[in-house]
Amino acid sequence: MALTSDFLTKKVQIRSNHGIVDGKEKITARTYGDIISTATDQAIYDTALIIDGLQEPVLEEVIKHELALLSMI
Fold first, then answer.
1. Does position 1 have pLDDT exceeding 90, yes or no?
2. pTM
């Protein structure tokens, strides 16, 4: 039996650092979906930098989420 992997979805999460608020570090996250399956990691990261440039808080990290269905045939 062979294992197959079928692409379902890809999302990117951009986390921003707002600095210290009320004595604690404040980090917010926004998730953007519907990324095409052929998008490269570099293209995703470059787009995240562009989105970050439109925001006031400092970019903390960029996280890519990929979801695939694994099945035996």
1. no
2. 0.81
- pLDDT (tens digit, 9 = 90+) per residue, 16-60? 999 999 999 999 999 999 999 999 999 999 999 999 999 888 899
Q: What is the largest CA-CA distance in the chain?
A: 56
Cα three-residue angle 31-33-34, rounded to 5 degrees: 170
How many domains, the chain? Answer: 1
Closest CA to 30 of 43, 42, 47: 47
Q: Backbone phi, then psi, for 49, in 5-degree steps?
A: -65, -40
Q: Is 12 exposed, middle or buried (0-12, 13-18, 19+ CB in 10 A)?
A: buried
Q: Judge whether 27 and 17 are in contact, CB under 8 Å.
A: yes
